[in-house]
Write a structure and sequence with these properties.
The protein is an alpha/beta fold. It is built from ten helices and 15 strands.
Length: 348
């Protein structure tokens, strides 16, 4: 059950409602949006029947949502959301490119990759300071030193930072540097981590688990939303199938399916889907053409020396093509390539 508060609802109205629900043996999670406040109720609905919640001061509407994911469902939020990351929009009439090195290695490599990202049409910088890897012997990232490098590059370029957090204990630290927190495929169902990033109040990029159904993906988003944070962007990054010709199998149908089921923006990761540089641009075309709200790609000045995922990184000669395809295909679907902060929209 979801309660939509009236536009003129006061803080006292909300606190009283939470107290009433709690006294009836339920839990109430408050999500404060730009234009309205939503209170999600957890517990036995029968316990709430006698409360006459619709008549309580400040209550605008009481909704019974059939989907198991109440807050991220289109049932309670008919228009699609736009998530702002330090002023950069994801969703709506925008095609947003996020680009950067898979892993932060050095200040020079990260700054060079950030400048490459801008030439590729990116308005957000991705870069991993913490790298959960299949092998314990693989490069695991620079940790806080990597976060400091990203912050310095943000100061130099103006690009807001998207970076992964892998442990609930690190959320506060990563959030003190990052503009958007990424939850990777291996942590999509790390529920303690999802709740922790929901509590911190920064926008969240939630990648689909490598073996997750779309419903499980949306339920993971619900864990974040339930903590009061609806600034969530879903990322389809390919799923594990029997096919070995690509690193993962890009489920391009997941984009319109998720957009029909949820109001959250949906982007695609063509780098981790294909796993090969020559596949990234074709998969990016498919993503933008099908209506994805953006793409997140790897770029690297010297992928042959990269400490992480070099074979899938775009190089200098690919950048203009990525920018052009995002802008041109976006325009054909009624959308505009999101400009980097402080820059004018690209002219087509």
């Amino acid at each position: 059950m979801v309660i939509v508060m009236a536009p003129d609802a006061t803080s006292d109205n909300i606190e009283d409602l939470v107290e009433i629900v709690t006294s009836a043996g339920g839990e109430a999670y408050v999500t404060r949006g730009v234009s309205r406040t939503i209170v999600g109720l957890v517990g036995d609905i029968e316990n709430f029947q006698h409360l006459d919640l619709a008549a309580r001061p400040g209550v605008g509407d009481v909704l019974r949502i059939s989907a198991p994911y109440k807050l991220v469902s289109r049932e309670n939020h008919h228009s699609r959301s736009v998530v702002s990351v330090r002023g950069v929009p994801i969703g709506g009439d925008n095609v947003t490119v996020i680009a950067g090195p898979c892993a932060v290695e050095t200040p020079e490599q990260t700054l060079t990759a950030a400048r490459m990202a801008i030439r590729a049409g990116a308005s957000l910088l991705r870069g991993g300071a913490y790298k959960p890897r299949t092998s314990p012997y693989a490069f695991q990232g620079l940790g806080e030193e990597g976060l400091k490098i990203l912050a310095d590059v943000r100061t130099e370029t103006g690009l807001p930072i998207v970076t992964e957090v892998v442990d609930a204990a690190d959320v506060e630290l990563v959030a003190s540097y990052a503009d958007m927190l990424q939850i990777g495929t291996r942590n999509m169902q790390n529920f303690a981590l999802l709740q922790a990033v929901g509590d911190v109040g920064k926008p969240v990029l939630l990648k689909r688990g490598m073996s997750a159904t779309i419903e499980e993906w949306l339920m993971a988003a619900e864990y974040v939303a339930q903590r009061g944070n609806l600034d969530i962007v879903l990322c389809e990054r390919g799923i594990r199938t029997f096919e070995k010709a690509t690193r993962n199998t890009l489920d391009i149908s997941a984009v319109p399916v998720a957009q029909n089921l949820s109001h959250l923006p949906v982007i695609v990761d063509p780098s981790h889907s294909g796993g090969k540089r020559e596949l990234v641009l074709p998969l990016s075309r498919a993503a933008v053409a099908v209506g994805a709200d953006g793409v997140i790609v790897d770029v690297h000045p010297h992928p042959e020396n990269a400490l992480c995922d070099g074979p899938q990184a775009l190089v200098e000669e690919d950048l203009a093509e990525l920018r052009d395809l995002a802008g041109t295909l976006g325009a054909l679907t009624g959308r505009t390539l999101t400009p980097a902060p402080g820059r004018e929209p690209a002219r087509l």
